[in-house]
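Example 4.3 (complexes with small molecules)
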Amino acid sequence: MWSDLGLNLEKHDVLLGALGKAYGDLFMAQKNRPKKMEYYNFVISEVHGLRVKELVERKKAGKKVIGAFCLYAPEELVYAADATMVGLCGGADFSIPDAEAQIPRELCPLIKSFYGFKVGGTCPYFQSCNLVVGETTCDGKKKVYELLGEITPTYVMEIPHRTDTPQARALWLAEMKAFKAQIEQLTGNVIEKGALKEAIRLINEKRKAMKRVSEARKASPVPISGLDALLVNQISFYDDVERFTKMTNELADELEERNRAGNGVASADKPRLMFSGCPMAIPNWKLHSIIEGMGVPVVAEESCIGSRYFTDLVQPKGSSVDSMLEALVDRYAQISCACFTPNNERIEKVVQMAKEYHADGVVYNVLQYCHAYNVEAVKVGRALKAKGVPMLKINTDYSSEDVEQIRTRVEAFTEMLRPS
Ligand code: SF4
Ligand code: SF4
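Answer. The structure with iron/sulfur cluster bound is encoded below.
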């Protein structure tokens, strides 16, 4: 199967070895994990096994697999056409040298990581895709999609950078329709209203299950580590939707039970930190592992691998395809990515989340060379300060070189938060 996918087997083995070790060291060493995390352990143990086989089987049956890098790719349309969506990871340092051999070093690690996976032939998910969906969000991604299009079929959606004008709304709707047509052409399936309604239900249920897990983290003591919650969010991008939803609802049941029993994973007298900023694609566990390695819990992620993915649902007001497309635009336009301007909704959401999750402080993650999130940190920090919530901005990449320095800074930050 691996050679059929055109994988670089030698490099792929090195990647799997490193991933397995990192997972064992960081996740399995945690104390008092929820029992239902066993499912996610299993998914990781089969990350380049069972799930890839399922995708290959679907392809053999004539179905299509579509890869995406961003929350703006409307997955409901993909499932309505009986295709499968996978989030392509860009969270590994491992693939960056392959990218840097071809594209500038001065790009965010997420972009270099995903491009490196393709040119290095080391990601079986990427190799399984019939089509990759890109989007005009940040400049780095836009320009790299042009290069990606030279080596693999790539479709780029034009995402307006404003939400507050009729022109932006019209463009968004036109892009939604164009994407629908593209998917129909690729799959040979016309998207009918019944199938779209069912796909909206399917993805809404998945988001609701993830939201339940997130809601449970408002409790003190917190019933699940930030590391485990982050993993659940990361896995949501490539697992089978129905299976993932079922297992995540079971995890939420357990967390709610733990909350009733006061069974937490961190001492209630530790400060609670909220994470905000650039996405942490799998297997980027760097900041969470540093923070929680000090016994300080991360209680929420205001991020694309986090609240931005599951907070808003699609809420159709009618049952025609057109009204459902309008509902998709309503929902997708609410994702408050820092590529938007102005982006006041995000500032308000961060402050609101810090309050709801009883965060004593916010750790703001900027991936190196990400100007959008870096500049927006000014407004976020100001708004949090006005509400008495301190923020620590960390500018980092995927390497381990700055781990000690980050640890020292987080330590000083949490000391300051500790009640005297
Ligand atoms: S941060 Fe913005 S560009 Fe990046 S994945 Fe999220 S929505 Fe997409
Ligand atoms: S983290 Fe920033 S620079 Fe990197 S892909 Fe996302 S928006 Fe672009």
